[in-house]
Amino acid sequence: MIKVGIVGGTGYTGVELLRLLAQHPEVEVEAITSRSEAGMRVGDMYPNLRGHYDTLAFSEPDPRRLGACDAVFFATPHGVAHALAGELLAQGTRVIDLSADFRLRDAEVWAEWYGQPHGAPALLDEAVYGLPEMHRERIRRARLIAVPGCYPTAVQLGLLPLLEAGLIDTEHVIADCKSGVTGAGRGAKVPSLLAEASESMKAYGAGGHRHLPEIRQGLGDAAGGAVGLTFVPHLTPMIRGIHATLYGRLKSEPGDLQALFEQRFADEPFVDVMPAGSHPETRSVKGANVCRLAVHRPAGGDTVVVLSVIDNLVKGASGQAVQNLNIMFGFAENAGLAAPALMP
Amino acid sequence: MIKVGIVGGTGYTGVELLRLLAQHPEVEVEAITSRSEAGMRVGDMYPNLRGHYDTLAFSEPDPRRLGACDAVFFATPHGVAHALAGELLAQGTRVIDLSADFRLRDAEVWAEWYGQPHGAPALLDEAVYGLPEMHRERIRRARLIAVPGCYPTAVQLGLLPLLEAGLIDTEHVIADCKSGVTGAGRGAKVPSLLAEASESMKAYGAGGHRHLPEIRQGLGDAAGGAVGLTFVPHLTPMIRGIHATLYGRLKSEPGDLQALFEQRFADEPFVDVMPAGSHPETRSVKGANVCRLAVHRPAGGDTVVVLSVIDNLVKGASGQAVQNLNIMFGFAENAGLAAPALMP
Amino acid sequence: MIKVGIVGGTGYTGVELLRLLAQHPEVEVEAITSRSEAGMRVGDMYPNLRGHYDTLAFSEPDPRRLGACDAVFFATPHGVAHALAGELLAQGTRVIDLSADFRLRDAEVWAEWYGQPHGAPALLDEAVYGLPEMHRERIRRARLIAVPGCYPTAVQLGLLPLLEAGLIDTEHVIADCKSGVTGAGRGAKVPSLLAEASESMKAYGAGGHRHLPEIRQGLGDAAGGAVGLTFVPHLTPMIRGIHATLYGRLKSEPGDLQALFEQRFADEPFVDVMPAGSHPETRSVKGANVCRLAVHRPAGGDTVVVLSVIDNLVKGASGQAVQNLNIMFGFAENAGLAAPALMP
Amino acid sequence: MIKVGIVGGTGYTGVELLRLLAQHPEVEVEAITSRSEAGMRVGDMYPNLRGHYDTLAFSEPDPRRLGACDAVFFATPHGVAHALAGELLAQGTRVIDLSADFRLRDAEVWAEWYGQPHGAPALLDEAVYGLPEMHRERIRRARLIAVPGCYPTAVQLGLLPLLEAGLIDTEHVIADCKSGVTGAGRGAKVPSLLAEASESMKAYGAGGHRHLPEIRQGLGDAAGGAVGLTFVPHLTPMIRGIHATLYGRLKSEPGDLQALFEQRFADEPFVDVMPAGSHPETRSVKGANVCRLAVHRPAGGDTVVVLSVIDNLVKGASGQAVQNLNIMFGFAENAGLAAPALMP
User: Fold this and answer.
1) Rounded distance, CA B271 to CA B295, Å?
2) Domain containing A28: what range?
3) I need a labelling partner for B101 at 20 to 30 A (CA). Which of B37, C27, D82, D83 fits?
4) Average pLDDT, stretch D101-114?
């Protein structure tokens, strides 16, 4: 049994951590912080947690109390983990950051996309990008994890087999992504109102989205060189889920794409390559830490289409964070993550 | 570890049983039957179950194979359990019927509402109405359980404290109920299409709904006499959830209604009386075997309003069925039912 | 052709006025005000209006410019019309107020429910409650209209026939109402987010809602005496629509209720009494200025159930405002209001 | 005033024709046919039409009665118009077919994709593809119109400027399309249930969809040669709307793309090129006969992204059919099509 803390627990990734950890046999939540809601019990804010955390209340962030935890999750806006991570690491606490603070290796690129200087560049060297399907061994030894973003998870898992095998033109990859509205967080913004966002579909950020450099970095690692990516995210009228539709141009006859994908993920507990011809639905992963993939080659042509679905709050955030924790602490990788998706 | 069978597993209550039992530490699903889908693996029909039941496939109903199970769930249309239950009981298998087949004690009333003769009147005497909050001790010893309907569960739990205490006029009770569309089952009917049922609200069955005699029977048991109930169900554009709004007229000063409710359900693991002034949301029980209640007395007048929410597929069907199983077999009552609701 | 102004045009009732008036053959929108969005063209805020009002932009409220209009609509939070209405009336401009400012005849009651003193009590005497089905003749001659609220419209139209005929017990009337989320306005509030409000149902204001005194006042007028009403509104996961389910207790044999309703509304262009046994759907009035009603008497008992549906933004707000305008200015009552509902 | 008939009026495109024609000043609906619902009044099937077509009822298809109309719309499954169109044309009735029967010029290709021989190849020569933005002059003189499909309309309008100007590589065009569920029609199919299709997103037909040859034919006309298109449609949890996200690779510096689009559609009443940087929402065209477009060139690279939205039932079907009628009969092109979209 280890003790964990959660910094910034009032948002959707915070409450999702609580939901998952309530079922985790090896973890006790010692502290959850929120400046705005300090003193409120978690069950009063999130009634689904009534009966699960009856004494746990939001508290002011206290580095000493957090430092007494074995691990601390950051479920905060960008910039917050920069300030606190070093202090916690110094106390021997491992840090699992769900924000974007440590995802980009290059502090300059980070500063450019986030509009402020990077607050902890000295930590970048040891931060490990927490995509277990690429970096499981490094995660095992890590003290500081940057949990991948939701779009980056769906896109990278769908493209890894093709890029690692060198099958597609790396200059012109397209990721057309559709996300449920929890991807925009719990902030009270007019465009996120049910009256505005339901019964509608729209693209956003077509000119450039903050997940773009993160995805490019990851795809570049897989490809062994720069990848030219066009990434268009869309807002979809549903609560959870990302559907990434990925297009690549084959450079030559690729062989058996289905087998390539199945072999690449054969040992992965949370990647499910569906049978040939499948079209995964986002609801098939609702609440579950799973990425389901299908690979198509329409009319046998030179375009390959990969369909990749995740729950943005689970495999795209809190579930992947718990998966990283499990790897770091030697727990069963599916501890707390074993429940099937909620369907229908 | 016990072995269970599921008859009629392709509908929503069937797949929900599989979802819940996947997390049950004491249960193995030995067989799941479907005439129409025999041979298909459950993960091919319900991809959320991929990785959880990889060898389980739908099979033709085989009384011998089912009779070798410790318990069998019926997740079937009405009439099916009538035919099979006796044969299974004779083999020593306990039967938990999620359909309406054994809910009404009076075979004549059943025949009137369901438009066909009752197929197993001899079993009615020993069938136990599986609402643990009323009949836990009888459930413990039962061989045959009639799992309550979804509306009946929400309505009865909300009215029990008032009726048992004799506080309200039993001649004029009103239950205005709102249900998500899974309450209508998985049949392909035009009114259940997304294009028809979303962005709309409507009542149905205002002249009389099959759950009416069941609710009246249960309320009558609690009140110790006949209860005059007006029950109007409504279709709500959501997948899961029932919200029952219950109106009763107080016969005299009722004392502390909040305390009455809290005391009535103090020992109930799956009934949550919320703080005074609360308005429970159906999403706070999505996927969870919980009924959340709040009691109001507007402007201190003589009308009491109870708000009662459940997930129609869990506490209103499959979760309650598992709860009954747990009680019958002496398992922890929350085995397989411990996960918090999925929120948001 | 008359000229109209709209004060406070950025909310949902404002844009809905623009949508309806775009089709009105006798009306030109001269000015639309918004302090926060002054200078922005309406089509930039509401792209559905692109091509319909290409030169119209939001402007600072200017009493002189508004006073040059034949009529001015207020689509503002409460309190705003109090301050401006008198000034406009003095200039000969007629005022149609969609807010609550002039709905209650008693300034004290208003002050109690809205938490501030009434700002224009001297105008209350001449304000006419703009429910054409009750006050058409007075509307014709009115200078100042208080457009009824959304819930009050649905509830009053459903109960008028029963109360006017003296058929039901006036002490115990119940209105269980379900509203789409636009009823909560366009404010950026967390509970109105798609991620919070969809896939869920909840009551709110069970202890008392601001529409309660307005409904009671109107029902009292119809009944010729005080009416005891329990009113519980619910939030429903849809954009538009109100479904009011109304329960009354019959005092004696009521005769033919269907005929009573049909006769009461025989000459009403915007009230549709559906055939006996019907269950009106809110989507059947989406975008249309119609109230559809059905009356039921379950099992021939002493409880009468009326189902009443409107679009909260049309017959419950902006459409009804235009209907009032049409009556006041002698236009065809359905001018600008002739389009069928959008279904599906 | 002309008389029109509608064959196959019970589906979504049929009811949408009735909704639009109710507002058309020059058209009277003389007959609407349905074998399955003959005798039922349209208002009984579609209550939104109550009060608009009170005497109109579905009737058995009667070629003589239809032949007495000035124009007949087919809102039927494929194959039906093949059989009847010739007979109506021979009587001097013009035919506007919303089905796929006359969209492909090559009867062989049609037979391949629709799995049956083409039933009226002799009519293909005179059939005009009813996309006014390409073929307005031919439509004016046409007797037989093939109304474009929903996806083809959104995709072609978005790509026409680029292809006509020869700016993009025609071998590798990608159309990632998202559609609301009415695109699948009103058939009672399990995947279209609210319980199945809401809160989820999925691709379908990635291996080949019937709209593919139609789109290729139209793009080829614009490009003056074959176009290699990858087309992946997706099902989105909303009632109406198509969002097409279109990707092309620029062959050279394209000049001012925004100006190109604005000029191409400057005289088009139903194509709205939004300001640079815009992201059109499908809800901005809900119920309206409009296509809104935006063109992006992310990071100034060689990929151009066009965002194109329509209402699949209006500009993607029934509205476009009425627009064709208006052109054929010399009515104002926006007759019956003038109302703004319903937003929110």
Assistant:
1) 13
2) 2-126
3) B37
4) 97
In a shared domain, residues C104 and C159 = no
Same domain membership, residue D308 and residue D184: yes
Element (H, E) at A292: strand A291-296
Shortest distance, CA C200 to any CA of chain B (angstroms): 5
C216 in Cβ contact with C187 (< 8 Å): no
List the structure tokens of D123: 């009519």
Minimum distance, in Å, between the CA of residue C111 and any CA atom of chain B: 18
Collect all residues with Cβ–Cβ distance below 8 Å to A255 and sequence separation of at least 6.
none
CA distance A327 to chain C (A): 31
Q: Assess contact for B223 and B167: CB atoms under 8 A.
A: no
- Which tokens hold the place of C143? 């200078």
Helix H or strand E segment including A230: strand A229-235
pLDDT above 90 for D221:
yes
Task: Evaluate the CA torsion angle D320, D324, D329, D330 in order and state its sign.
Answer: positive
The CA distances from residue C224 to C129, C131, C155, C303, D190, in Å, are 16, 17, 17, 21, 52
Choose the catalytic residue: B69, B150, B177, B291. B150
Q: What residues contact A267, with CB distance under 8 A and at least 6 apart?
A: none
Whole-angstrom distance, CA of residue C270 vs CA of residue C335: 12
- In this complex, do B192 and D195 lie within 8 Å of one another by their Cβ atoms? yes
Could C194 and A193 be called an inter-chain contact, meaning their C-beta atoms sit closer than 8 Å? yes
Specify whether C177 is catalytic.
Answer: no
Which segments of chain D are extended strands (E)?
Answer: 2-7, 27-33, 58-59, 71-74, 94-97, 128-129, 144-146, 173-179, 202-203, 229-235, 242-249, 271-273, 291-296, 303-310
What is the ipTM metric for this complex? Answer: 0.97
B162 contact partners, CB below 8 Å, separation of at least 6 = B168, B248, B260, B304, B306
Please give the Cα distance from B271 to B262 (Å, whole number).
Answer: 10
Residues D205, D81 share a domain:
no
- How many structural domains compose chain A? 2
Tens digits of residue pLDDT in B219-272: 999 999 999 999 999 999 999 999 999 999 999 999 999 999 999 999 999 999
* In a shared domain, residues B247 and B295: yes
10 Å Cβ neighbour count for A92?
Answer: 11
Dihedral Cα B115, B120, B121, B126, nearest 10 deg: -130
Q: Give the span between the Cα atoms of D198 and D329, in whole angstroms.
A: 41
Do the chains contact at B245 and C234, CB–CB below 8 Å?
A: yes
Weakly modelled stretches of chain C, pLDDT under 70: none
CB distance D196–A296 less than 8 Å?
no
Is pTM beyond 0.95 here? yes
Nearest to D82 by CA among D16, D9, D144: D144
Contacts of C19 (CB under 8 A, 6+ apart): C48, C49, C318, D339, D340, D342, D343
The answer to whether residues C96 and C161 belong to one domain is no
Residue C139 forms part of a structural domain: no
Does one domain contain both D165 and D295?
yes
Q: In the 8-state DSSP scheme, what is residue D318?
A: I
Cβ–Cβ under 8 Å, residues C22 and D340 = yes
What are the residues whose beta carbons fall under 8 Å from the beta carbon of B321, sequence distance 6 or more? B13, B17, B73, B96, B98, B130, B145, B147
Query: Which structure tokens are listed for A277?
Result: 């011809």
**Phi, psi (deg, nearest 5) at residue C258:** -60, -45
Residues of C in contact with B288 (CB under 8 A): none
The residue written with tokens 């209350």 in the block is C124
Question: A236 and A305, same structural domain?
Answer: yes
CB < 8 Å to D287, chain C: 287, 342
Question: Would A323 be classed as within a structural domain?
Answer: no
Shared domain check, D159 and D99: no
Structural contact between residues A71 and A325, judged by C-beta atoms closer than 8 angstroms: yes
- The two beta strands, C242-249 and C173-179, are antiparallel
On chain D, the residues whose CB falls within 8 A of the CB of C340 are 18-19, 22-23, 48-49, 51-52
